[in-house]
């Protein structure tokens, strides 16, 4: 069974605004105010909570303060959970492409480095969780992207065959995951990291989800 696997943050949805808000809640709690900008720092937000905390600590002149980052990380997760879809939006055409692929007989799944419970909550709040046959997060398995087993197990849980899949993503992590698994990657160019995508030499790039079904058919039949 052919399977199309999607990354979540920066691929299916622009989650950067809510992620930045959660990180800034941590910094306000530390008494230093908002350190991250929702526009300028959107690309960092999509690399996860610790990346945002690290950037903020760097701006405070405390780049090596791992202990403070470790203290703030659960605070960030709780702040994010409590306001997970205030600013988040699905990218245009995302779910139309998912529905079209499903109608064509592909299995569709989500493989994200966001904690699984938060990923499920977000997709549920967005009203699209039921569109996917499987979802795995950073803590679902003993490994996570770019380890290829994260992708392969996602495909298995969706009822697919790992050798007949591709990964749709937005980052070097997604590109390296697909490369390690020996399958194609399709990277989107409409997210905050879009300018850097071409240098990653994926098998395909798309500027809008309208392009995805034809690209999938070309790459995995």
Automatic annotation (TrEMBL):
One of its GO terms (biological process) is DNA repair. It comes from the Bacteria. Its EC number is 3.1.3.18. Coiled coil: none annotated. Pfam families: Hydrolase. One of its GO terms (cellular component) is cytosol. It is an enzyme of class 3 (hydrolase). It catalyses: 2-phosphoglycolate + H2O = glycolate + phosphate. GO terms for molecular function: phosphoglycolate phosphatase activity. Pathway: Organic acid metabolism; glycolate biosynthesis; glycolate from 2-phosphoglycolate: step 1/1. Belongs to the HAD-like hydrolase superfamily. CbbY/CbbZ/Gph/YieH family. NCBIfam families: HAD-SF-IA-v1, HAD-SF-IA-v3. This is phosphoglycolate phosphatase.
């Amino acid at each position: 069974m052919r399977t199309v696997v999607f990354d979540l943050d920066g691929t299916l949805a622009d989650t950067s605004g809510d992620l930045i808000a959660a990180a800034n809640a941590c910094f306000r709690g530390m008494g230093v105010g908002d350190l991250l900008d929702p526009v300028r720092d959107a690309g960092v937000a999509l690399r996860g909570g610790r990346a945002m905390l690290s950037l903020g600590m760097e701006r405070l002149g405390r780049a090596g303060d791992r202990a403070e980052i470790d203290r703030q990380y659960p605070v960030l997760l709780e702040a994010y959970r409590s306001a997970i879809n205030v600013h988040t939006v699905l990218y245009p055409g995302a779910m139309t492409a998912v529905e079209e692929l499903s109608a064509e007989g592909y299995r569709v799944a989500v493989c994200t480095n966001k904690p699984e419970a938060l990923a499920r909550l977000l997709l549920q709040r967005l009203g699209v969780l039921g569109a996917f046959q499987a979802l795995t997060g950073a803590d679902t398995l003993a490994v996570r992207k770019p380890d290829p087993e994260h992708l392969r197990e996602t495909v298995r849980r969706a009822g697919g065959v790992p050798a007949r899949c591709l990964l749709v993503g937005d980052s070097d992590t997604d590109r390296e995951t697909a490369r390690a698994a020996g399958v194609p990657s399709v990277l989107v160019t409409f997210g905050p990291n879009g300018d850097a995508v071409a240098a990653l030499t994926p098998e395909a790039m798309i500027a809008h989800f309208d392009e995805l079904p034809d690209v999938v058919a070309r790459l995995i039949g």
